[in-house]
Amino acid sequence: MALVAVANVKGGQGKSTWSAILKSHLNGSGRLLDLDPQQGDAHTWAEAARVDSKLIWPETLFEDLEAAANDNLWWHVADCPPNEGEATRAALALAAIVFVPLIPGGAQDAQAWGRMSDLLDEAWKVNPDMEAVVLLNSVRPTALSRDFQDLLQSWHSPEDGRNFIGSVPMHVAIAETIAKGKAPTDPAVRKALKGFDKVVKIASSVTLAKTFISNRVQAKAGAANE
Ligand SMILES: Nc1ncnc2c1ncn2[C@@H]1O[C@H](COP(=O)(O)OP(=O)(O)O)[C@@H](O)[C@H]1O
Ligand SMILES: [Mg+2]
Q: What does the alpha-carbon distance between residue 130 and residue 124 come to, in Å, rounded to a whole number?
């Protein structure tokens, strides 16, 4: 059912981790596209987890992303590199959902969020139906985490496609299952993934909305031909 891009302009925020989590839970046989091929973290996980994946090099970037975005059957997940280069921009231009994991660790993370939200604003100009889903990841109970929460709550505006869905704690089970190449269905991991059900809900509501819209368009086209 189209493309979920997992993006943040900064490294170490949980992009590859969440690409694996989303790929494990979004229905069925979509592919995991690793847009950070030199690092290859998502691809390495996918090989161990026996999940269909592909390293995406610049030569086939647009072709592969377009094929994924136009797939009517499955969700495909694109793990983006930690920058605002061409691969990230292309993924954002084509994605139905952009999932942004964000660690509320310090000033650099706040700065990264500033750049990321600018990048989202740019993407909406070419991809107005895109849903952005932000999750605070690897959260510890600090005053800074609370500041990030307040910041994102004021950004949150679902009717504009801006969704802040909550916080997931720093949890060793999350890091360990991914590192072992397992699918994160273990109850300990599920418990740690408090924001996760909302992610799936948003993914499926976007699917429903898209189905609804395309049915409407077809019905209108049918009426016009009669
Ligand atoms: N919620 C979490 N709890 C504990 N460790 C986490 C969590 N999210 C990510 N990590 C760890 O943080 C590190 C960076 O995550 P990664 O997904 O590789 O980030 P990115 O792809 O954005 O560079 C990894 O070692 C990963 O296991
Ligand atoms: Mg990564």
A: 7
